[in-house]
């Protein structure tokens, strides 16, 4: 709904054009479609088989791209789902009355089900562990099926040949198309944006409301469907499966090579990589039979070292096949300021921190710190290096769990609430060192947060408004990596506002800014209450910039609060002066 | 003191460094004379650590030069600079948690002759008796002050001509820091020149001969310790007044 | 008596496992690089040993130092040209090196397939057993286990009692601190990787006198090594040695009571279990 609202006022063609990307994308799509339709009409039996194999490779590549390309979790065991799909299909067809297409589909669902089961466990781990875990899973399944007599053990199962090669081709084309559609969905949807943000910087994504585990598991489940479907169809194509062919180790290698060579994490990469390498491979293998593994392994190595962006990365340098920004309209709309957030009745403080203590091993980072922020207040927190200021913010936002003490937000105990939920409730923070999504555009960085915050129902309009008031409107299509430091800080601020927060926590937002830029930020901070922000807390080193802005100032030193009160009196407090300048000797 | 213009132990000229589009040092020039203690002051984020790391070779400068007793070392790999005679005690200390105190000293003195190594070790145990007591203890189990001593001792074992100390007072009680500073006169006598980065104004000025004040990557004030102590503007750059 | 037999076999097997795992521990500990080609180095060395001893009649123990040096040299080149260029990518270096070693493992496996075929082969060295006090000691296992344990002990001694070894440990615990001591951390990475690969080759030579190998088993060894490191603690050489021994004992028992397949699958189940219950074991040795 929000997307349509944002796009209203454009012609239908312009809308479709901008959604589909540019001329180069159309060219590739047209070529693929033409090939798809021509093959069954003109090819020989050999050609049809090759085309079917290419389609299988494309489907596998697109499946892998979902979890390993967009979401960034390298899986070296997708063959697990392939084998499961193959066996599920074979068993259902040979033992039950389920029609063949039903069996294939059920195989696909089985893959998804297994992924949904294992996902929450395995995706909590770091990338390497997930990769290793999937590798292990594939080996375990291979052994299980090798010994399971019901499934034919090492001799395998044969299927009654009931499908023509053309039918298999058609089925594979459908699967490949579905896999492509899924990738296209990722590239054009908020969900896909969430996944890409996790790939870039999971901790920062979570701070802006992205439900990390949920997104990862769904991406994983989707990525499991396609290898399972392909496995099911290949079983039909060969009329026979056994553990060695169903769980063949080279499948993952091929899939990785195709996607990497084509361009990992892109829309067209899997298609280009699979098509090009399969065809080249067919030619080369005539001259160099049995060197398939070495060749593909070599291509992986070379691609990583020389052309990590793959073919699409190369094309991008010429301006082709660029990914259009997600959820972006053709032109930046005016946008409108949002209505204030609904607040609970009464005089409940926005934030109440009670006796917060944080320990890192033997080090006491925060000791019995208490802080209350009431509506309308701007509080600045100052202190020397290592005093515990950022630790305080990290505890309030849920990045670290306190050892003791409690945190109340709008009257609700949030001490153990996951970070993304706090963000959705309206608690927004900026980071000391900007943690922008560097590979995403300015627009995408902000709309990512808008989608999860208080204005999620009108995310596009809200994003446009935020970009305008933070002075980033002209740069909305720039990749975040190309921004100057001052603009990066402004983008940090924009993301905070995008959440439509009630509580804003700014961590050293003035650092590295020119005087002019600082004035801009100060102006935004002053106007925050108009936009529904109930309270602001700033951690700052540039004390001059926040002294006249704050209602109260709190000074931390070695994890303790040593002073609190109106800024001018706090800055003259001898204890504070001592903490900053050191003990007079 | 020699009346002839002796070659300064360390000369930094127009140093510029940064990360990506961000420039951290905007043309810093300073000098440390032989056997001097010079302090670099400045608020957090001013660039003190970046300055020391660039001199030590951990950051490659974009422009400017660094000379050690007149010899240009700009752009040298960091380990070569360490062997050339610049001892670096980094912020965060960077100890080897599972190696013992004795190991740290041994590794620091790796490129000395065994005789020199033994001599240095003897002197260090005199200066820091605690180290002798805890020689067999793993560095990760020591207290903050002891760890700082190990870090300094390790740097001194490289037999440096210039010692770079990056905010040694971080996380330590002033008493302990002062005890550390009391070893400086002995170090100077042994021919070591010291460049110290400090956030604490009073601690820094208490031990230095001269100082520079760094603000947003530039030197804004310079003078003897006495001059800087009396200058109100120094406190202003810290408290943002 | 059966119990004692299983225990002895388990300990000897554990000795072999120690070498398998320590060679990977060295690389992961110093560089944070996951060497997915680890198993393929082992298998290539083992198969080469088979080929060489069949042709020349020489004892595999003579092949051991040859394989160590030759593979070490290969490892140095791999590090210099394939891995070191990735270090400049900072955070992404980990995943990129994963991909590169993934590709490399297939190149090596294919090489093995070309040179020595896909069948399982073993070296017919010391095929009899000694019988002492009613217990049978498989001679090959005894020799392999003892040699592997000795090499691992030598590695441990070098790391902990020599200055150059300590320099390597230092570089893995704090690269910046090591630089401050004048240690060329880039060269340490090269040495660590080359050494790790050389030791993997040594392990391969010893494995093939005990059990048949084929190119397809490469991944199994990689995973086995990771399981042991996971259990013992990354960078913790004593912990890994202990874990290897425990696993050797468990495998020995499992093999006897549950049959070949359970023994084969057990490491994977264990890996998944450890990853789920205690993922923090894989954090690199803290700097």
Overview of this protein structure:
The complex is a heterotrimer of chains A (585), B (241) and C (287). Chain A is an alpha/beta fold and 585 residues long. Helix content of chain A is 57%, strand content 11%. Chain A has helices at 2-7, 12-20, 23-42, 45-70, 79-95, 100-122, 127-147, 165-188, 190-200, 202-207, 212-238, 243-246, 250-262, 269-287, 292-306, 310-317, 389-397, 419-425, 442-450, 459-469, 485-498, 515-527, 543-547, 567-572, 574-581; strands at residues 157-158, 240-241, 351-360, 363-373, 378-383, 404-409, 412-413, 427-429, 503-507, 535-539, 552-557, 560-565. The longest helix of chain A has 27 residues, at 212-238. With 241 residues, chain B is α/β, with parallel strands linked by helices. In chain B, the strands form two sheets. A six-stranded mixed beta sheet of chain B has the order 6-7-8-3-9-10, with helices on both faces. A four-stranded antiparallel beta sheet of chain B has the order 2-1-4-5, covered by helices on one side. Chain C has a two-stranded antiparallel sheet. Chain C has helices at 2-31, 38-56, 60-83, 93-116, 139-161, 163-173, 175-180, 185-208, 218-232, 237-258, 260-277, and strands at 129-132, 135-138. Chain C has one domain (2-116, 128-282): ABC transporter involved in vitamin B12 uptake, BtuC. Chains A and C meet through helix 7, helix 13 and helix 15 of A and helix 4, helix 9 and helix 11 of C.
């Amino acid at each position: 709904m929000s997307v349509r609202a944002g796009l209203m006022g454009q012609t239908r063609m312009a809308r479709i054009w901008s959604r589909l990307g540019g001329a180069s994308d159309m060219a590739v799509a047209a070529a693929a479609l033409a090939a798809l339709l021509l093959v069954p009409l003109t090819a020989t039996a050999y050609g049809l088989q090759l085309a079917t194999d290419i389609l299988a490779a494309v489907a596998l590549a697109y499946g892998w791209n979902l979890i390993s390309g967009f979401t960034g979790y390298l899986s070296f065991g997708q063959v697990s789902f392939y084998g499961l799909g193959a066996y599920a299909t074979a068993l259902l067809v040979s033992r039950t009355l389920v029609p063949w297409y039903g069996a294939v589909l059920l195989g696909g669902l089985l893959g998804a089900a297994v992924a949904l089961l294992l996902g929450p466990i395995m995706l909590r781990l770091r990338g390497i562990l997930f990769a290793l875990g999937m590798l292990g899973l594939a080996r375990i399944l291979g052994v299980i099926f090798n010994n399971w007599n019901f499934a034919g053990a090492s001799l395998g199962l044969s299927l009654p040949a009931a499908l023509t090669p053309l039918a298999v081709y058609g089925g594979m084309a459908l699967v490949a198309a579905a896999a492509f559609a899924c990738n296209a969905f990722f590239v054009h949807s908020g969900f896909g944006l969430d996944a890409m943000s996790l790939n870039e910087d999971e901790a920062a994504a979570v701070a802006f409301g992205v439900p990390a585990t949920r997104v990862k598991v769904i991406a994983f489940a989707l990525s499991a469907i396609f290898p399972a479907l392909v496995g099911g169809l290949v079983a039909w194509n060969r009329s026979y499966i056994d553990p060695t062919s169903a769980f063949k180790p080279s499948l993952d290698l091929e899939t990785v090579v195709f996607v990497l060579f084509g361009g990992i994490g892109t829309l067209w990469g899997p298609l280009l990589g699979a098509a090009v390498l399969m065809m080249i491979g067919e030619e080369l293998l005539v001259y160099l039979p049995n060197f398939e593994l070495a060749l593909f392994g070599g291509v992986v190595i070379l691609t990583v070292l020389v052309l990590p962006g793959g073919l699409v990365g190369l094309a991008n340098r010429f301006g082709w096949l660029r990914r259009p920004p997600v959820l972006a309209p053709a032109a930046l709309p005016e946008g409108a300021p949002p209505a204030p957030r609904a607040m609970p009745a009464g005089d409940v403080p926005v934030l109440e921190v009670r006796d917060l203590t944080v320990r890192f091993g033997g080090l006491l980072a925060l000791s019995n710190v208490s802080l209350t922020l009431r509506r309308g207040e701007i509080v600045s927190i100052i202190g020397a290096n290592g005093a515990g200021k950022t630790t305080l913010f990290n505890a309030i936002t849920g990045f670290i769990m306190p050892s003791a003490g409690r945190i109340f937000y709008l009257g609700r105990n949030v001490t153990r609430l996951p970070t993304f939920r706090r963000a959705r409730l309206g608690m927004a923070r900026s980071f000391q060192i900007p943690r922008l999504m560097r590979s995403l555009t300015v627009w995408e960085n902000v709309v990512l947060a808008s989608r999860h915050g208080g204005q999620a129902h009108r995310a596009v309009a809200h994003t446009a408004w935020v970009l305008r008031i933070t002075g980033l409107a002209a740069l909305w299509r720039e990749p975040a990596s190309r921004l100057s430091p001052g603009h990066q800080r402004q983008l940090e601020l924009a993301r905070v506002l995008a959440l439509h927060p009630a509580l804003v926590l700014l961590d050293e937002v003035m650092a590295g800014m020119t005087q002019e830029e600082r004035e801009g930020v100060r102006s935004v901070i002053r106007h925050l209450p108009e936009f529904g922000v109930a309270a602001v807390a700033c951690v700052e080193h540039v004390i001059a910039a926040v002294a006249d802005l704050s209602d109260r100032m709190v000074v931390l030193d070695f994890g303790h609060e040593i002073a609190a009160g109106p800024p001018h009196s706090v800055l003259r407090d001898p204890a504070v002066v001592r903490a900053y300048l050191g003990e007079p000797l | 003191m020699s009346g002839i213009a002796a070659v300064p132990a360390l000369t930094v000229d127009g140093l510029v460094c940064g990360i990506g589009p961000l420039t951290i040092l905007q043309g810093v020039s300073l000098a440390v004379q032989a056997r001097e203690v010079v302090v670099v002051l400045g608020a957090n984020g001013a660039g003190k650590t970046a300055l020391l790391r660039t001199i030590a070779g951990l950051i490659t400068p974009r422009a400017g030069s660094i000379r050690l007793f007149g010899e240009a070392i700009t752009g040298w790999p960091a380990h070569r600079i360490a062997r050339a005679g610049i001892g670096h005690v980094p912020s965060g200390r960077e100890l080897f948690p599972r190696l013992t105190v004795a190991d740290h000293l041994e590794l620091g003195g790796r490129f000395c002759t065994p005789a020199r190594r033994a001599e240095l070790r003897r002197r260090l145990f005199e200066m820091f008796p605690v180290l002798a007591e805890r020689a067999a203890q793993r560095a990760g189990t020591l207290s903050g002050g002891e760890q700082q001593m190990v870090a300094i001792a390790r740097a001194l074992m490289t037999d440096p001509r210039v010692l770079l100390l990056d905010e040694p007072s971080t996380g330590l009680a002033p008493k302990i820091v002062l005890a550390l500073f009391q070893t400086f006169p002995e170090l100077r006598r042994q021919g070591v020149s010291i460049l110290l980065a400090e956030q604490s104004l009073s601690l820094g000025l208490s031990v230095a001969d001269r100082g520079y004040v760094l603000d947003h990557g530039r030197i804004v004030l310079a003078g003897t310790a006495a001059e800087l102590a009396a200058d109100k503007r120094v406190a202003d750059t810290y408290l943002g007044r | 008596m059966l119990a004692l037999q299983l225990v002895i076999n388990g300990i000897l097997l554990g000795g072999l496992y120690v070498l398998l795992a320590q060679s990977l521990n060295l690389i992961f500990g110093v560089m944070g690089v996951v060497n997915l080609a680890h198993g393929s180095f082992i298998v290539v060395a083992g198969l080469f040993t088979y080929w060489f001893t069949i042709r020349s009649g020489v004892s595999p123990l003579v092949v051991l130092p040859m394989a160590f040096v030759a593979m070490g040299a290969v490892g140095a080149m791999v590090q210099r040209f394939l891995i070191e260029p990735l270090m400049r990518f900072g955070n992404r270096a980990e995943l990129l090196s994963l991909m590169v070693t993934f590709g490399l493992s297939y190149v090596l496996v294919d090489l093995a397939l070309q040179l020595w075929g896909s069948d399982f082969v073993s070296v017919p060295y010391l095929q009899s057993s000694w019988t002492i006090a009613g217990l049978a000691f498989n001679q090959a296992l005894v020799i392999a286990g003892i040699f592997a344990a000795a090499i691992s002990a030598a590695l441990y001694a070098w790391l902990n009692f020599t200055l150059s070894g300590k320099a390597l440990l230092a570089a893995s615990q704090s690269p910046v601190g090591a630089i401050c001591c004048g240690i060329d951390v880039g060269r340490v990475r090269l040495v660590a990787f080359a050494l790790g690969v050389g030791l993997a080759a040594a392990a391969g030579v010893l494995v093939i006198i005990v059990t048949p190998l084929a190119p397809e088993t490469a991944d199994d060894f990689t995973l086995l090594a990771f399981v042991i490191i996971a259990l013992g603690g990354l960078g913790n050489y004593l912990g890994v040695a202990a874990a290897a021994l425990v696993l050797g004992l468990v495998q020995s028992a499992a093999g006897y009571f549950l049959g070949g397949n359970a023994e084969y699958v057990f490491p994977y189940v264990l890996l998944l279990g450890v990853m789920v219950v205690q993922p923090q074991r894989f954090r690199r040795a803290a700097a």
